[in-house]
Design the sequence.
């Protein structure tokens, strides 16, 4: 099970660091996803087992994904936050479970809420 943490309420321009813990990641590529109210789940950052990272255009230059596989932890450093970054953030494998961009019960752990106010 994947457990995201570190969310909170932050003023625009601020920063947050999210953490994701799992029993093990193995050789899976991992991603941080987010879902804003009324919107579809969106992949914002991914990292391969070799450490290569990719980002959605909307967060490029502001977010940094990192990992510590020895500790089975994935992180997302978020800076210069904007109100449009407000969402529930999840971590999971990349591609997502069942290859679907839906938070399917049993395949996604608890997300963490990030709320950015202006």
Sequence:
């Amino acid at each position: 099970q994947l457990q995201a943490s570190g969310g909170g309420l932050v003023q625009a321009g601020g920063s947050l660091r999210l953490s994701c813990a799992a029993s093990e990641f193995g050789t899976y590529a991992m991603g941080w996803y987010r879902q804003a109210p009324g919107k579809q789940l969106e992949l914002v950052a991914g990292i391969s087992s070799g450490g290569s990272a990719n980002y959605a255009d909307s967060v490029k230059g502001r977010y940094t994904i990192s990992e510590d596989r020895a500790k089975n932890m994935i992180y997302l450093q978020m800076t210069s936050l904007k109100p449009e970054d407000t969402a529930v953030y999840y971590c999971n494998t990349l591609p997502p479970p069942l290859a679907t961009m839906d938070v399917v019960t049993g395949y996604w752990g608890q997300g963490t809420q990030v709320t950015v106010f202006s």
